[in-house]
Amino acid sequence: MPEVIFSHDPSKTMAQQAVPGHNRFHPEVPAAATVRPGQEFRVESREWTDGQIGDNDSADDVRDVDLDRCHMLSGPFRVEGAEPGDLLIVDILDLGPIPGERGPVCGQGWGYSGIFAKVNGGGFLTDYYPDAYKAIWDFHGQAATSRHVPGVEYTGITHPGLMGVAPSHELLDSWNRRERALIATDPERVPPLALPPLARGALAGNADGDLLARIAESGARTVPPRENGGNHDIKNFTRGSRIFYPVHVPGALLSVGDLHFSQGDGEINFCGAIEMGGFIDLRVDLIKGGMDTYGVHRNPVFQPGRVAPLYSEFLTFIGISVDHRDDTNLYLDATEAYRNACLNAISYLKKWGYTDEQAYLILGTSPVEGRIGGVVDVPNACCALYLPTEIFHDDIRPGGAGPVATDRGQVAVTS
Amino acid sequence: MPEVIFSHDPSKTMAQQAVPGHNRFHPEVPAAATVRPGQEFRVESREWTDGQIGDNDSADDVRDVDLDRCHMLSGPFRVEGAEPGDLLIVDILDLGPIPGERGPVCGQGWGYSGIFAKVNGGGFLTDYYPDAYKAIWDFHGQAATSRHVPGVEYTGITHPGLMGVAPSHELLDSWNRRERALIATDPERVPPLALPPLARGALAGNADGDLLARIAESGARTVPPRENGGNHDIKNFTRGSRIFYPVHVPGALLSVGDLHFSQGDGEINFCGAIEMGGFIDLRVDLIKGGMDTYGVHRNPVFQPGRVAPLYSEFLTFIGISVDHRDDTNLYLDATEAYRNACLNAISYLKKWGYTDEQAYLILGTSPVEGRIGGVVDVPNACCALYLPTEIFHDDIRPGGAGPVATDRGQVAVTS
Amino acid sequence: MPEVIFSHDPSKTMAQQAVPGHNRFHPEVPAAATVRPGQEFRVESREWTDGQIGDNDSADDVRDVDLDRCHMLSGPFRVEGAEPGDLLIVDILDLGPIPGERGPVCGQGWGYSGIFAKVNGGGFLTDYYPDAYKAIWDFHGQAATSRHVPGVEYTGITHPGLMGVAPSHELLDSWNRRERALIATDPERVPPLALPPLARGALAGNADGDLLARIAESGARTVPPRENGGNHDIKNFTRGSRIFYPVHVPGALLSVGDLHFSQGDGEINFCGAIEMGGFIDLRVDLIKGGMDTYGVHRNPVFQPGRVAPLYSEFLTFIGISVDHRDDTNLYLDATEAYRNACLNAISYLKKWGYTDEQAYLILGTSPVEGRIGGVVDVPNACCALYLPTEIFHDDIRPGGAGPVATDRGQVAVTS
Amino acid sequence: MPEVIFSHDPSKTMAQQAVPGHNRFHPEVPAAATVRPGQEFRVESREWTDGQIGDNDSADDVRDVDLDRCHMLSGPFRVEGAEPGDLLIVDILDLGPIPGERGPVCGQGWGYSGIFAKVNGGGFLTDYYPDAYKAIWDFHGQAATSRHVPGVEYTGITHPGLMGVAPSHELLDSWNRRERALIATDPERVPPLALPPLARGALAGNADGDLLARIAESGARTVPPRENGGNHDIKNFTRGSRIFYPVHVPGALLSVGDLHFSQGDGEINFCGAIEMGGFIDLRVDLIKGGMDTYGVHRNPVFQPGRVAPLYSEFLTFIGISVDHRDDTNLYLDATEAYRNACLNAISYLKKWGYTDEQAYLILGTSPVEGRIGGVVDVPNACCALYLPTEIFHDDIRPGGAGPVATDRGQVAVTS
After folding, report:
1. Does the structure show a pLDDT above 90 at B304?
2. What's domain A314-391's architecture?
3. Domain boundaries A4-303, corresponding CATH code
4. What are the backbone angles phi and psi of residue D154, rounded to the nearest 5°?
5. CB of A349 within 8 A of CB of A277?
6. Which site in A159, B226, C67, D37 is 20 to 30 Å from D321, CA atoms measured?
7. What class of enzyme is it (chains A, B, C, D) (predicted)?
8. ipTM computed for the complex
9. Are strands D254-262 and D73-79 parallel, antiparallel or unpaired?
10. Is the Cβ of D124 closer than 8 Å to some Cβ of chain C?
């Protein structure tokens, strides 16, 4: 285990920590620590909502979550010698829940996934499932089970949902401009089209006064992935992965957070992963001038790690880019195609006794593969959701005696 | 090898065959043969353009292709006992190129992939690459190489790009209505938003006279995937796969065609697979009343086969839903996100001496995985393209001595 | 499909072919054809017994098989420019059963596996199963099923059981000397410890007269693997594999035969694979002086191909190097350890209603992995047999309701 | 993390711990703790030599190791309700090195592998490499590197080398009888054929006086695997694995130890794995009467876990059962065949500048697969060693420019 350069008292909020993290991307967030190329180090991480969700059987906390505080990131970390134009190499050596015995803080032996209410966060199927729900997951080594979703057990692909470097002022301006333009097309939409900078809830390490005000005024919210990396929510960003980030500011300013115990492609129920606090061990290095050398100017590239759960049997659901509620044809819309693949899977799983919400949460948390089929065959995009059949205790494949609708209880609901 | 129930003289067009196939989906296309549940049978298949593309070094044939004749399908095959509400099981036992020595017909030891001109077909990156190009690929067992794209060799995942059952009249009416509504939103667009029924070039087996006229008038073009299956272009629809199709008409009326030697997720250059004529061996069976039993009412579901090329090292490119040409933010648009991942990969491969078109064709034809990352983190969808590094003769991973821009010639161009 | 350089009329024995093959390794066997480095070519192959086994329900043909004629090989093929000290590269491009419809010759849509009688061939468990049995397997694309072993279906890893180059006279002398020395330790043993040169049944292409007599007198029998390659029976020698053979004689003299549709590690029932006649497509090349360059002086090395059936669930049986019949401890004997792992697996499978012989044949023909566990922990070697559970129609894993002993009939027996 | 039921002060020997473990298998070793079916628990484990090996550059400690104290096991654990005839289910939930920062005790951020001297332990190639050597390995998450073996990096398959239940008195008597009979065939052999019970160094938890004397007199040494499980050294016994042990005594008496960070099939250099102290999390359950129900009477069976490093490119070395030193033919001896495969691999790796000892240690510690090829083709067994090429920084495949013999230093040697 390498040296801990960012620690975390689970019983306190991020703002209360000795060295706080941050929840906005901005080039002026003060560095929490400095690392040198070649160094290995451990970072402790808060669960993304900063501890708002409890190990209980009510979804009220999900319904009422304060999203302005999210995501609480550890860092930023200044990398010695990093300059704009370089590629920052980040090796994910290891990550996991909070070490030690089961406790009340998310990551202490358990995690959760939530269906967020349409009025507060939403999710991929929020037009179909507008209310808040929650499931608690227990960790057994690399496997997870849930009292709220009986009959399944997964081997998780642990990964950080969010990791990224600081934008330059120029890049940040570009984000703010284009996202505000998008919001302006439908400013009253629920949920909103995008989240603009917001002073309320902003945290920027130990910055205060004018500096904090400046960061709060223009700092980018952490919800989306952008050119700096950010909230990729790519399930294969796991142990052994090597990421190459374009560097935009001196020192690169690397941040990380939003650890996931397991997640399916798309993280479809928004907080679709099994969320947890925990630790992540990293090693950094530099390719000087690497952006030009390798033609990597926009988004990071990465090599996935060599560890993944071995699943070889899938039942695959297909969707096309038609809104079947009113039979409207969209044009090569992979998002809609994948949404329909998910809805088809839920329809199927209900025959085995799962509720809509249980099925939705299975798709979000289990290692499903979301693949783009065809995106050129006008007018319909085609996407496919590969559901590993081996995560179910029952044999859910078609054929044989047919499904038996077992009573499987229910996920946590709101009061 | 099972009994051949649909044969194909490679030297003749589909219309000239003893028992012609068809190129429109319609419930009244006469069955070319009848099969019984449990039967195994072989179907011979024309390459999808019906033989318009040659083994040469000019892309003129791609530029000038007559798309009204496409896709030429084998079938339909009536399945004894199949009725609406059933699930039709189709096992793909085997498929491959045309047996025998190398010859002038596509599938006789070679295939092709094409970048279609924006004015005639287009493709996923047609706004970036509007002209026609072509590459010829040679088959070496399960591997492919190309004189037009030196430095790569793939193990192909052979699959039918297109397989499906006949729609009911009601379902067909729904398609025509919704697709015409889409076209009406921008009727002059190039390429068009969708392709409406078209009498020119229509073929419906041995139908003629009034029947042919009726089919031509309302029969669905075969380009998109729809509820009946159709042009899925899913690369994992390979040997050993089992598909479950909802049955919409008595006899199900199964058709198949558009065989691919290899393809990446998305089939991004439209005719992005390595196209070929060849054979496919199938076995059919029925689950009576299976649509209700399993909740499979809309799209087919399938279990992928157990054969896939073993690639374990990837370089992964990420894209987000921003149109970077003018820095416009789209809302959770997975299609745009995947397009950017593809563009990022092309930018990278050019550093190794590949031309834009060569890189584009590598992405379309090699077994890349196109995965949906996050589709809930407003406003940006995130998609990732996993490029297997082991298909390249050079080590293309970042690090080491850096890329050497080798002269790799050029793909076939137009005159 | 490349040019056929060695063809095979299935209705005739190897000796009756226009250009016969051979069944002894000797440096003077006349070349059947010449190939040049870089050339791709097809070779047709007889099933290893030269057609002695029929598609029927009696094991009499297995009991009475004339092993002196085996294995019937195609070739040898002279490689232009090959000289002693080179490494001969052989790429296995493709292989499969005899093309065309089902017929009476092994490989025409079917294959077989046999338990050979202890008095005529034997096998790995011959002390436990001394009598002759047989199962016929039907091919469905890449999958096999058997009317004699209901309840299982495998995706086969097709491979040549036997491929190799000619020995030099010096190497051949060494083989004959050391194998005769072994036989001399127990010359009356049944089955014999090794098979010395034998004039009866010897075939050496079109050699006759003195040349044939000389070859017959000292030519090595083809049963074992040796430094020239030979009867490796390695299941992963499949499509896409590249083998590097040390060259011992000018022209290398490559031969191939004994094609298998599927086999488990160890080929435990001797003729344990699913045997077939068929074709194999090869490409050859040379690394001049490669034996010294790479330190490959003794046995060939190879890179396995990229195609393998995807199985990810195994039930694993362990054996140690104790002869449990009389509780005798052997010293680090991996052979005995693997034998016990096989016996433990048979004991287990019998609980599901399989007969001893059915279970034995499943282990020989299915893609089981035979792994060496520990071979240093005195006195017991430990080996493990990984049985893919997904080849069974029933769920054979421990747990749940326990096994149900289904009546599964019987394999073919002797009269 | 579950409750710790067996803890371990790294700075003390096993005998000095508050609750000591044991190093002999005997039905009367007092239970260190009791667990109930369904319980999850953590066990801390000493490195197998009980701390005799240091993080330094001398192999003297390996040369002089006191093997009489090995292996130091944690346990035994009594399982409530377990009775002879049951199957004990053990789920390996997690395992890893000692948590915390790097320290002087093996497992604190580092491990080692050793070539043991022929006069003190030996190893698989001890006749070729009779002297003592050592390499220290550093842990980086799931990957290992070594200053003594530069140029390689592996993703480890962590596993317990040794886990097992107590034998009954009857079973223990059988072991002692048969192993003494083996020793009697060559009682002066170096290294010995087997290790009989030995009072010196015996530890049996808190037993003392007559009880300890009785255990020491007949208790089985822990080196070999036997019917109770024991020192399997199976690399795939990793996280997520489920083992089914036949129960021989009331309470089953489960013990575990000899944790490995990584190991190749065969653990060929005896202490061939990367050895470490650490922790293991287990869950136990029972199948009452399961030995008869499933026909599992002799050795345990297991289902491997779903986590394994993804390596897909191998260079494979083959060996046959000939002692090439004097060209003696052994009969179907898989041990000798695998030994030759290992020697062939060493010969190859030396061309890249590795010393004999470095190459030997790579084969022992990296995730090589040791597969049984054919064990029926008289007189030669054939085994194959699959070496993952992706663990090397250089491209070690044949072809291209050929090997460059880099100076790679040396492993730790004796004074």
Report:
1. yes
2. Roll (3.10)
3. 2.60.120.580
4. -120, 150
5. no
6. C67
7. hydrolase
8. 0.96
9. antiparallel
10. yes
